[in-house]
Write a structure and sequence with these properties.
- The protein has six helices and twelve strands.
- About 25% of the residues lie in helices and about 20% in strands.
- By secondary structure, it is α+β, with helices and mostly antiparallel strands.
- The chain folds into two domains: about 40 residues, no CATH class; about 270 residues, HIT-like (HIT family, subunit A, 2-Layer Sandwich), CATH 3.30.428.
- The protein has a nine-stranded antiparallel beta sheet with strand order 3-5-7-6-11-12-10-9-8, sandwiched between helices.
Length: about 325
C-alpha cells in the first residue's frame, strides 16, 4: 500500500511507495514489455500497461485533502505505462510520425477516460529517456500518472497564468508568449501550421524546448485530427534534432501539459515540454544544491545559442 504524506512547510503532498524499491534495474535477459513475455500481447503497435510498481493505485485508502502536521492520506490514482513499440531496441526518435500519432491517440483516449473519473484531478503524461535520467527499463515507453490533486509545480504555473489572465483583460499568457517568440524568431526551433517548437527565453534546462499549440486548446481531447497529426510530426522532428545534436540519444524528460480534469481553465494552453540534461557532448547538467535545495535553476547554456544549434541539427531519418 502507498500513502501520501503532507509536507506542512512546502504545503505539498509527498508520495511514499516502498513497493518501488523492488523495480528491476535495467534487466539484461528479460523484458516484460516485449512480446512473448506473457505480460503484454504477442502483437501490438502501442499498448497501455498498468505499472507493476505503482506509486498511485485504486487499492490504496481513499484520498482526503485534509492537511496538518503528520497528516497522511491514501495515494489513490492510476499509474499507466505507455509502451511505444514492441521493438525493444528502438529509440523514440526513430518512430515515424504515423507511429507518434498512435501514441498521441493513446494519450488522448486514456485522458478522456480519466477526466470522467471523479477521483482524478490531473492527468500527467510524461517520458523519461536515458540511463542518466534514471530509467530502469530500456524498452521505449512513457507513463501516465493520474493524481487526486494538482501537483505543486503545475499548480504554480496555473496560478501564474490565471493571475495574468485576470490582470490583463482575459489575455492568455501562453499565446502572448508564443506571439512574442514568433516575432523575435531567434529561439524558434521548428514549426508547422498548428504547433511551434521553441527554446523558452528563461529556459531552465540546457536546450529545453516547448511545443505550443497555435490555437487556444487546453487538453488533448480539444485537438482536431489535423492538429494531432501536426503534433506527432513536430514531436518526431524535435526528437531527431535532439539525437543529432551530439550524435547520440539525448537523455531527457518529455512532459505533456494539459488542463486539470476538473474546473474551467481558459487561461491555460496545451503544450509539450522537453527537459534535457545533456549540456554538452561530454557533460551532464545535474540538479544539485541550488536547483534541488533552493529551487532556483542555473542554466549553463544560452537559449538563443541552443535554438540555433537545434535548428542546424537537421533531422535524419
Amino acid at each position: 500500500m502507498s500513502e501520501l504524506r503532507w509536507h506542512p512547510l512546502l504545503r505539498e503532498w509527498v508520495g511514499v511507495a516502498n513497493v518501488r524499491q523492488h523495480r528491476p534495474q535495467l534487466p539484461q535477459t528479460w523484458c516484460p514489455f516485449c512480446p512473448g513475455s506473457g505480460k503484454v500481447p504477442d502483437h501490438y503497435d502501442v499498448h497501455l500497461y498498468p505499472n507493476d510498481f505503482a506509486a498511485l493505485g485504486t487499492d490504496n485508502a481513499p484520498f482526503s485533502p485534509e492537511t496538518g502536521i503528520f497528516c497522511t492520506t491514501g495515494a489513490q490514482g492510476y499509474c499507466d505505462v505507455v509502451l511505444y513499440s514492441p521493438n525493444h531496441t528502438l529509440i523514440p526518435s526513430q518512430l515515424p510520425p504515423e507511429h507518434w500519432r498512435k501514441i498521441v491517440d493513446l494519450w488522448t483516449n486514456r485522458t478522456a477516460e480519466l477526466f470522467a473519473n471523479d477521483l482524478i484531478q490531473l492527468v500527467y503524461a510524461f517520458e523519461n529517456t536515458g540511463i542518466a535520467i534514471g530509467v530502469t527499463m530500456p524498452h521505449p515507453h512513457g507513463q501516465i500518472y493520474s493524481f487526486p490533486f494538482v501537483p505543486p509545480l503545475i499548480q504554480r504555473e496555473l496560478d501564474g497564468a490565471r493571475a495574468h489572465y485576470e490582470a490583463n483583460n482575459k489575455e492568455n499568457l501562453y499565446l502572448r508568449l508564443l506571439d512574442a517568440e514568433l516575432k523575435d524568431g531567434r529561439r524558434i526551433v521548428a514549426s508547422n501550421d498548428h504547433f511551434v517548437a521553441f527554446v523558452p527565453f528563461a529556459a531552465r534546462f540546457p536546450a529545453e524546448v516547448q511545443i505550443y499549440a497555435r490555437r487556444h486548446v487546453t487538453a488533448l481531447m480539444d485537438l482536431s485530427n489535423d492538429e494531432k497529426n501536426a503534433l506527432a510530426q513536430l514531436i518526431k522532428i524535435v526528437r531527431m534534432k535532439y539525437d543529432n545534436l551530439f550524435g547520440f540519444a539525448m537523455p531527457l524528460m518529455m512532459v505533456v501539459r494539459q488542463r486539470p480534469a476538473k474546473g474551467d481553465h481558459p487561461y491555460f494552453l496545451f503544450h509539450v515540454e522537453f527537459l534535457p540534461i545533456q549540456r554538452s557532448a561530454t557533460k551532464l547538467k545535474y540538479l544539485a544544491g541550488v536547483e534541488t535545495g533552493a529551487g532556483t535553476f542555473l542554466n549553463d547554456t544560452i537559449a538563443e545559442n541552443k535554438a540555433a544549434e537545434l535548428r542546424a541539427a537537421e533531422p535524419k531519418t
